[in-house]
Amino acid sequence: MKVETAYEFSKVSDCQLFGNQLLALLEKEKILVAEDFYVYYYLIEVFSLLLSQNKKSKEILLHFQKNKSKVIKKDEDEVNAIYNLCQALLIIYKDLPKALTLVKDSLNLVKDKKETKIYAFLKYREGKLNAQKGNLNQSLSCFEECLVYGELLNSKQIVNNTLISIGEIYRLKGNLNKAVELYNDALINYQEKENMFGISQVFNNIGIVYFSKGDFNLALDFFDKSINYAKLVKFNYIIAESTYYLTKLHILLGKISKANEYLNDFKKLSKKERNKFLNFYAQLTEASILKEKKRFESQAKAISLLRSIIEKNEIYNEINIHAMLNLTEILLEELRIFNESKIIEELKIINAKLLKIAEMQISRSLLAEAYWLKGKINLIQLNFDEVQEDLLKAQEIAFSQGLDNLAQKISLEYDSIIREHKKWKAILNSDVSIKQRIEETQVDTLVSQMIQRVSYELETIEKDTPVMLLILNEYGIPLYSYNFSKEKYDSILFSGFLSALNSILKEVLATEGSIKQIEYHDYFLTFKNKEGIIFCYVFKGSSFSANKKMDNFVNNIVKFKELWNKLTSIPKTGKFFDKIEEKRIAELIQDSFLL
Question: Where in the cell is it found (predicted)?
Fold first, then answer.
């Protein structure tokens, strides 16, 4: 099939030409096989994801729907799977959860046809959607399976796209060198086939890595190359993203006139193409330049553009996220100058919208960062209870999705705030200006890092020191305790622990699976509720490693059915662990907390 060859090598004009010819032939055919229907997938991928032409894609999908009934019976499942995937491609930006459901339904239809193109395409898309959600480990598993079938099918397109996507997972996990290595593997293959789409995408992705690392000159070089290749094939998405980052880079390097040159070229392209995606990105790029001009007139225009994007853009969530973060940056500067409560209220409204997008798209990395940002905004107002709740939630979300690099950064901030509680109390009781509070919280640094898509690398940090593990029933009555130290704690200290437990017990019971944490004297107490059994780990040091250990222990004890059944029966029977059971649970504790 000529259209497949054109798609494989990303020759878009040929793909469109052969595709349209084939669509005309399909109208005349009375009986069709599954192979005939791949043309719809190739064309929708080209028009929707590469050229951002949703209207044309919808026309092709209607054509598909009309011809679906012509397929021979044995190919029905495969064709329905292709159709669902085409539907998913059209709603990726608008309704990610529904897109993922369509992909999973399709995988179920072709579960017995794994060595087919549609199965590989579906596994690839499942991986991409999970990456957008922040489920990085699940996403990586999908891509690794897709890579196997891509090689079996001898499809360079599938293999190269998958290598890029695996590289993106490593970038998000903070392993930037591994990401660049995978991007370069794909680049070699794309250059051999003169695949301009692939080359421009790889250059864009490598540019983002160097931008995140702060190596601005290398980033400039790669984004420039990316745009040049993308323009050859009208790859609008990459043109838009690379131009946005190029203007950001030139602003950071103090070259506003150069940033304006890129903006003017971009605005001309947007006007010529009459494309909503390009138009919104052009407005976003213009606003990012205007906000750097510290004159009130420029700032006001930037605010107006950003608010307009957020209000009118109902499809492209990624653009809205950038708009909200840029608007947050401007409002923080205004807050420094004017100290008006209504500015903080608007910051909270924007943050709530960010959280809504993250929850709607089920994007866990964004959700974690948005809660982190929420915590910092609450810290400006010195709302300590909310700060702790937000940061713990952010850390838990990041940790649960394997984003250890992000979870570690949030954990370090949480520990720092707890340890500097006296400093923050002094700020609360004194007349410290909003400007000083913003500087102390470093909220503007976080916003800047979110805009720059900074990937945090894992650091070697202080580990926790275990003190005690308590297992309690829902009323706070101890069912089991383990002392990690030979040091004996006096009854006053122990009763204080129990009082601290009781103060948080209701909250812990109300949120099963979540980790809660409080400070008591020189200790931290971390809690987790599992089916009404409360685990309390008392420690000193890093909450990041402590929470990982706690999570590991709870998961392990649940796997030991005999121990878990006995533990959950103690509140009903009053029969505690015997010596053999105590030995087993002690070994499990040592494996989880001391290794």
Answer: Cytoplasm
